[in-house]
Design a protein that fits this description.
With 217 residues, this protein is an all-alpha fold. The chain has nine helices and no strands.
Length: 217
Amino acid sequence: MNEKRNVLSTKSDSWVYESIRTTLVEARNRVYTAINTAMVSVYWEIGQKISEAVGDRAEYGKQLLQFLSLRLTKEFGKGFTVANLRNMRQFYQMFSIRYTLCSELSWSHYRILMRIDNTLRREYYTKECIDCGWTVRQLERQVNSFYYERLLATQASGKESVKNEIHTLEPKTNPTYLLFLLSTLRQASYLFMILHKLTFMYACSTTRLNNQTTIRL
């Protein structure tokens, strides 16, 4: 009788564990997706504003990036080096149609994709990355190992082997929940700080504009 009760207890414990685990994984994925989407969107907008302001004026572009880097770093902290701002500008130029941005791809994914100059290759890696759910490390390995070119050069019978090799050479690894949570909270607090300040600055500028309009009237 005791053995039967222990078996039932073990099954019940396992069911509770699996239920809680599912809840945590789903919550983690929702949080990650929300923060990642917001971050990619913000960087795209920053890139758009810089690109439109610079146009074809290369010399002005260098001066503007230096100016923005100093001002933004002073007000918002790390993350706005000249190199990062240049990446944001390039991001907008390479992915200029906003609705084509994908929530499955992180900023780190896009930074790797931006290294690919050839449009066809970049579009292929983007699609494969989304369809196959590649991690950042998997995408980087595929690009560095010329996966696209090797697949084109491989006969039909061997293509499946080339596609599956990534699972052995660079298997997916899941971070512990605590490490993921700490990393996500840091990203969230950083991003929310930026969004809050941008909203405040926009509200102030709108108020000043309305006041000026009222005075003129």
